[in-house]
Amino acid sequence: MSPVIKKWMFCLCVFLQLAALERQIFDFLGFQWAPILGNFLQIIVVILGLFGTIQFRPRYIVVYTVWTALWVTWNVFIICFYLEVGGLSKETDLMTFNISMHRSWWREHGPGCIRRVVRPSAPGILDDYSYVSVTGCIIDFQYLEVIHSAIQILLSLIGFVYACYVISIFMEEEDSFDFIGGLDTYSYRQPPQEHVELKPVKPVGRSK
């Protein structure tokens, strides 16, 4: 494989890793367990695809290609979730596996957001109970999540096309090696020779 192809594949994997790591950090801050699991698998599979490209392992790249299709589907679902398409609601605990009431970290810490803790003044409410008021956000948190997912989809589609291209190159190289006997180990074998029975030869006596 050409070093240029490996270089471009390496650069693409670096961008994918940086995007996944950035998203993983903010999902951890928001305790979004479903996206955290997805980001972790994305990081592992991208490393696997890069290893397959460098070490000439087409099967690893096939795994990366299949996972990329699933990753794009997952990000489309996240976009639908935060835009509340198809009966989905961003106010549910789906992203936390229904084990907590945490929401996206961007909900309270988005660009321009002012977070204020408001103590309830009504009687009968515990003193340690409070409300969080968020105002002044330049972009709502759901649109930030949509932007993150859209970036992941764009990079993944580029990676999918490039992975298919790398697989086709591997297949062409394997076919050419097979044609010239480069990978065909049987081409080096000589046809079996017939067994020849050896018999002792009597020495011819000298004439007197």
TrEMBL record:
Transferase among keywords: no
Keywords, alphabetical: Cell membrane, Membrane, Transmembrane, Transmembrane helix
Topology relative to the membrane: Multi-pass membrane protein
GO biological process: regulation of sodium ion transport
Gene Ontology cellular component terms for the protein in this record: plasma membrane
UniProt xrefs under InterPro entries: Na/K-Atpase_Interacting
Subcellular location(s) per record: Cell membrane
Family label: Belongs to the NKAIN family.
The protein's name in its UniProt record: Sodium/potassium-transporting ATPase subunit beta-1-interacting protein
